């Protein structure tokens, strides 16, 4: 790994292109085709991009039952336990509507209403991501969303992986369709004969999925445009180099654009971790991906003190932050920008990815400076409630009219004054 002791301009921002012009045009063409031809377009595009001809886009009850019978019962139990942890965590995020009244009869409040429908995109094809199902579906269920639609590209066998279907059933999804890519996003946004449109689309995907979400935003809501995964580890010199290396590689194996960064006040630890990363790389099944990630985006920053290390972390604003210091809770108090923080030796990042309960859909590429993990609020609307009594409007009506006229909006002023026409 690249070891740097000049900390100025520390960054994990990658020059991740938001899509070439050719890719954007391709996505726009796919969206237009789905809007025009509906299910026929989905069938054609699935055959073109996924190499499979489907008789039906919808996942059947038999396919779900086959998924349960084909999956190790122990794995089903683990998925159920993870779902329970995730559901319990997100239940604590739920906020009630509230109302307050004043002596003059004024009543103000905020009404919380779940979205009517949400579409969840789950990546697939050559991989299976049941954790992505749980993390996207369960906050929506906790929020009270009535209709949740899941889409995922089929494999060459025309099926969605068993783990994904089992997770969807455990999470309570009733509509599942075997369609992926930009065409799936278009179907969720605009509807087809089989798939009714939704109000919001969440979930990760490749560049074509990300571009499609960007294109349909405004017609529907989206969660975020997620970039490649990243981890920053803040460690003092008393930590275990082999464990840190393993944690760094746990993110590097995601994607060649993934970023793994160590910030430490120990040159000795920096050297040990660098050697450990190289040693562990050779035995990884996804060595090619992880090696390229480490070579291009893997960095070790050596700082003069932990205080300086905290400053570097706040500049980086990482998606995942592990704090491995003598007093991690004290260190955490100084962290302002991070998507998720993992404290202590036994809180390795995969604990949060799969099982602990907090959401693993996190802001990337420095956006933790201003955004948050996927949460229950993402699936709810807040409506302001205003009720003025006659006495309250009499007391404040003149002030409201004067503010309206300050902005040059005479009709606004008259709309208040007309209620007391003829009164002194």
TrEMBL record:
Zn(2+) binds at residues 251, 254, 353, 412. GO terms for molecular function: histidinol dehydrogenase activity; NAD binding; zinc ion binding. GO terms for biological process: L-histidine biosynthetic process. It catalyses: L-histidinol + 2 NAD(+) + H2O = L-histidine + 2 NADH + 3 H(+). The active site is at 319 (proton acceptor), 320 (proton acceptor). InterPro entries: Ald_DH/histidinol_DH (IPR016161), Histidinol_DH_monofunct (IPR022695), Hstdl_DH (IPR012131). NAD(+) binds at residues 121, 183, 206. Its EC number is 1.1.1.23. Keywords: Amino-acid biosynthesis, Histidine biosynthesis, Metal-binding, NAD, Oxidoreductase, Zinc. Pathway: Amino-acid biosynthesis; L-histidine biosynthesis; L-histidine from 5-phospho-alpha-D-ribose 1-diphosphate: step 9/9. Its cofactor is Zn(2+). Pfam families: Histidinol_dh (PF00815). CDD domains: Histidinol_dh. The keyword Ribosomal protein does not apply. Binds 1 zinc ion per subunit. The keyword Zinc applies. GO terms for cellular component: cytosol. Substrate binds at residues 229, 251, 254, 320, 353, 407, 412. Catalyzes the sequential NAD-dependent oxidations of L-histidinol to L-histidinaldehyde and then to L-histidine. NCBIfam families: hisD. Belongs to the histidinol dehydrogenase family. This is Histidinol dehydrogenase. It comes from Rossellomorea marisflavi.
């Amino acid at each position: 790994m690249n070891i740097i002791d000049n900390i100025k301009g520390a960054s994990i921002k990658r020059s991740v292109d938001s899509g070439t012009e050719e890719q954007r045009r391709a996505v726009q063409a796919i969206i237009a085709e789905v809007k025009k031809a509906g299910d026929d377009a989905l069938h054609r595009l699935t055959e073109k991009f996924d190499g499979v001809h489907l008789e039906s886009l919808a996942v059947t009850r038999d396919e779900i039952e086959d998924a349960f019978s084909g999956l190790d019962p122990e794995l089903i139990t683990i998925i159920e336990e993870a779902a329970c942890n995730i559901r319990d965590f997100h239940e604590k995020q739920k906020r009630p509507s509230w109302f307050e009244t004043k002596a003059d009869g004024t009543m103000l409040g905020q009404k919380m209403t779940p979205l009517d429908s949400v579409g969840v995109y789950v990546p697939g094809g050559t991989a299976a991501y049941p954790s992505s199902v749980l993390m996207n579906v369960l906050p929506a269920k906790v929020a009270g969303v009535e209709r949740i639609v899941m889409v995922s590209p089929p494999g060459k066998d025309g099926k969605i992986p068993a783990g994904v279907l089992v997770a969807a059933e455990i999470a309570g999804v009733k509509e599942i369709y075997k369609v992926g890519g930009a065409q799936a996003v278009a179907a969720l946004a605009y509807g087809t004969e089989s798939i009714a449109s939704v109000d919001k689309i969440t979930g990760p995907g490749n560049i074509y999925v990300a571009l499609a979400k960007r294109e349909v935003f405004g017609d529907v809501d989206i969660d975020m445009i997620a970039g490649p995964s990243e981890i920053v580890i803040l460690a003092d010199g008393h930590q275990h180099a082999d464990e840190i290396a393993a944690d760094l590689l746990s993110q590097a194996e995601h994607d060649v654009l993934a970023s793994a960064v160590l910030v430490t006040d120990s040159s000795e630890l920096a050297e040990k971790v660098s050697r450990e990363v190289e040693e562990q790389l050779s035995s990884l099944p996804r060595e090619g991906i992880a090696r390229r990630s480490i070579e291009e985006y893997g960095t070790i920053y050596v700082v003069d003190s932990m205080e300086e290390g905290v400053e570097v972390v706040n500049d980086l604003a990482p998606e995942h932050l592990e704090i491995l210091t003598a007093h991690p809770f004290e260190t955490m108090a100084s962290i302002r920008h991070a998507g998720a923080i993992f404290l202590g030796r036994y809180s390795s990042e995969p604990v949060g990815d799969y099982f602990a309960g907090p959401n693993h859909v996190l802001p990337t590429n420095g956006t933790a400076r201003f955004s948050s993990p996927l949460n229950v609020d993402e699936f709810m609307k807040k409506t302001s409630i205003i009720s003025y009594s006659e006495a309250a409007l009499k007391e404040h009506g003149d002030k409201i009219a004067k503010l309206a006229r300050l902005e040059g909006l005479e009709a606004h002023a008259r709309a208040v004054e007309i209620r007391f026409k003829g009164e002194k």
